[in-house]
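::Encoded backbone::
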Amino acid sequence: MKFFSYILVYRRFLLVVFTLLILLPLPLILRSKEAECAYILFVVAIFWLTEALPLSVTALLPGLMFPLFGIMPSKEVASAYFKDFHLLLIGVICLATSIEKWNLHKRIALRMVMMVGVNPAWLSLGFMSSTAFLSMWLSNTSTAAMVMPIVEAVAQQVISAEAEVEATQMTYFSGSTNQALEIDESINGQEANERKEKTKPVPGYSNDAGKISSKMELEKNSGTNSGNKYRTKKDHMMCKLMCLCIAYSSTIGGLTTITGTSTNLIFAEHFNTRYPDCRCINFGSWFIMSFPAAIIILLLSWIWLQWLFLGFNFKEMFQCGKPPTAKQKACAAFIKQEYQKLGPIRYQEIVTLVLFIVMALLWFSRDPGFVSGWSALFSEYPGFATDSTVALLIGLLFFLIPAKRLTKTTPTGETVAFDYSPLITWKEFQSFMPWDIAILVGGGFALADGCEESGLSKWIGNKLSPLGSLPVWLIILISSLLVTSLTEVASNPATITLLLPILSPLAEAIHVNPLYILLPSTLCTSFAFLLPVANPPNAIVFSYGHLKVMDMVKAGLGVNIVGVAVVMLGMFTWIVPMFNLSTYPSWAPPISNETTP
């Protein structure tokens, strides 16, 4: 038993050593550049899938192993680790830092929820819409982490309000009237004081009423703080619904923009590097392509989750002329109170919002496709200005525009300004910048370059060419299901980084527009809905304790099916004319019948 315990303790170390040794015969026996690159590819893939080493550390292995195996010189490998993608990421993180620093994200989320009302069905849709919108511009993880505390507070407020209503009714039936019904102002801060007030017998009221009220309050308290958190099954179902709405909508929203999630950015950089003559993937074209799909997936996911956990009751959803219930009043009061705490919109929020809008407009208008964009002003240098140029321009303004004056008191007691603080500082930017993702993506680019240089990509493409006899829709479906399955157990960036160098030559080998294969595969990489460990938003909502793994599996399976079906629908409807997918493009490499031994 002691031996097995040692194996368990050092399992990651043993996995690294045995992986390197077991796969070593591949380059030693075959002795070709393709075999040596395949060895490195397998090692990196296994380490990424098992996380035997941190993902970003594994991403550095191509920088070490390609020069040692003579596949690429060190200078060329190093240049792959910082590309146009990284400049775009820096600009986007500057925006995200300012949005979160000045609480603009919270104002947007609460305002959108206030607009849709407090009916549970519409409330969940409101949270999904606001979360998806924020996720278009912020990282999926930070969006889920920001919205979940608000959702948790609202859910607990609804449960507390219902408990108080029932306590009032029971008191009334016992021959007394409870005039102390009130909406909690704060779930955590003032709960104990309010509980004491409510459990005290009120002069002139019967002792039985006090006992009943006290009992109800004790039940509510034990339900909130012990293992039995919920008064009824419906309360539990509502908490599950709210949690999954946030997890899934933060992922779905990231599909919409090319900067919404790292997998979109990885695809864009890989595609533009491999097919530089295409110039068809930019912020505007991606948004037009993915926005309809994201909206459909979001609405169908909402319907599926609503039906799965609360049932889809049209009478309750469309309460024409009916007054709101006590629960709904409590929920609306809490959301309104949280919004009022933010106070009037501040100068810093206005400037951040203006820069955010300007950045989006510049992205859309750079090269919209149907008309000439502002990039035509630089026709002397076609393709030089990209989305990263816009991101850097706006990002630098966040370090320049004043946010507030810095003052000091002179010896005479006079307060004078001596400097100003910008919208964001470098330290704040550093705390938000995901350097691990930057390195991980760089490692993927280096891996793709190595596969190309060694001839492994061409060899894989030729071996997969018999798949050309299958219908295109079946190839797309197989690749989408493969990616969706793999991304449940591996990180999304690692999955797309690993598969892009394989899927690109596959499309070329079967003489299909590469976008036909790459676009659905990229979108499906984000469909990690089944497990808590599949992506960070899932883990965040799971940590609140309302969900079991099987809840997420049941709900996620339906959302996965919806996602893949909508992507397939899009690939054969509105996306086809956008990119002229029906023909093999001139910007892709011509067919080669050569095989590499």
